[in-house]
Amino acid sequence: MKIHIPEHIDLNYPERYDLNIEISPENIAVAVIECDNQDHSFYQCLYPENYKTIPAFFQDILFENEFFLFNFRKVNIINYSQTFTFVPDILFNEKEKGEYMNFLFCKPEGKVLFQKDDLLHLILLHTIPDDLYQFIQRTFVGVEISHHLFPLLRFFNREEFRNKDKRMLVNIRKKGIDILCFDQEKFLLGNHFECTDLNEIVYYTLFIWKQLKFDQHKDRLYLSTQKEELNLQLKNYIENIHWIEYPESLGMA
């Protein structure tokens, strides 16, 4: 599958750009972002048609598009995985990262990776298929592999979102939702739910809201997508609902 890069992306100077690639079970999303001007970016979502596995689809995309091997400033692989957990960094031992996952999941498959957020003092553990991990390591030099929630976690903890109240982000994807919750600078919860039905989205949102004892009048709910019907249903229970706009390359697919 050939990818056509628009003219405003000048790959004669790849060092001026970051390459972000999100790999999920349904698709592969590619973003080329100019470092000094993120308005100059390119984003495309690619869907496999006659491929049995996403790694095979990913390999063919790379072989058909030589720009993937250009010397970008940074290459970020965003790993969509439902096998993940959060650990306070004070309790984390890298040598035991597999033990954490084995304790929480029944025989988790794949390579265990982690990212650390220094501001939140938090470790995000996740798994990636072994064959996909090996292919990425063979193909890219100095690549960073992060979980799909990690860029959202950092984005939603920016100073502009903090105040004295609690806040929840519901990131609506094609086949599920991500939920992140904070109390000012304190991380409360991060989870992913497989759902597409509007009533299910409302249920999971309100369930977490109630479990964490959010206040329906003063605490804030942020939605990543403007869905009028969803907004109307949630307005019956939550007063402060906002639409959050962030770069498409963060939420990716």
Describe this protein's structure:
With 253 residues, this protein is α/β, with parallel strands linked by helices. The protein folds into two domains: 1-148, Protein of unknown function DUF3822, N-terminal domain (Nucleotidyltransferase, domain 5), CATH 3.30.420.250; 153-251, Nucleotidyltransferase, domain 5, CATH 3.30.420.260. The protein has helices spanning 54-64, 97-104, 130-139, 150-156, 198-211, 228-235, 248-251; strands at 17-23, 28-34, 41-46, 74-79, 84-88, 111-117, 122-128, 144-147, 166-172, 177-183, 186-193, 220-223, 240-243. Strand 12 (220-223), helix 6 and strand 13 (240-243) form a beta-alpha-beta unit. The radius of gyration is 19 Å and the shape is globular. The two termini are 18 Å apart.
Ends apart, CA distance between termini:
18 Å
The helix-and-strand class reads alpha/beta
How would you spell out the order of helices and strands?
Answer: EEEHEEHEEHEHEEEHEHEH
CATH C-level class of the largest domain is Alpha Beta
CATH superfamily of the largest domain: Protein of unknown function DUF3822, N-terminal domain
CATH architecture of the largest domain: 2-Layer Sandwich
> What is the fold named in CATH at topology level of the largest domain?
Nucleotidyltransferase, domain 5
Radius of gyration: 19 Å
Q: Give the domain tally.
A: 2
Number of strands: 13
Major beta sheet, strand line-up: 3-2-1-4-8
> Which descriptor suits the 3D outline?
globular
Range of strand content: 25-35%
Biggest sheet architecture: 5 strands, mixed
The unreliable regions are none
Q: Percentage of helical residues?
A: 10-25%
